[in-house]
Design a protein that fits this description.
alpha+beta; Alpha-Beta Plaits
Length: 95
């Protein structure tokens, strides 16, 4: 599964608006998730885009990185996949 990490998304951007912005540049998406502050309900300006086609990751980065969305320059990188429980499994537990 290929995911993009987008930084500097406009604060009041909706998932739908971000999806339309990405897809208008020829990138097919499977899902979009803008990370939001649960209390205030606003985005801290980053999110994730999961691509339908894994082979499109480098093309998507080159097409989207450095482009402007509502006067914000978007930075796009490949999202890093984190292993589940890696940190805790290495810790010693008291006997």
């Amino acid at each position: 599964m290929s995911k993009l990490f987008l930084v500097n998304i406009p604060y009041n951007c909706s998932d739908r608006e971000l999806q339309e912005w990405v897809e208008s540049r020829g990138i097919n998406t499977r899902s979009i998730r803008i990370v939001r502050d649960l209390v205030a309900g606003v985005s801290p300006a980053f999110g994730y885009v999961e691509l339908k086609d894994d082979s499109q990751i480098q093309e998507a980065i080159s097409v989207l990185n450095g482009k402007r969305m509502r006067n914000q320059t978007i930075t796009v990188k490949e999202a890093q996949v984190q292993g589940v429980g890696v940190g805790r499994s290495l810790q010693r537990r008291p006997a």
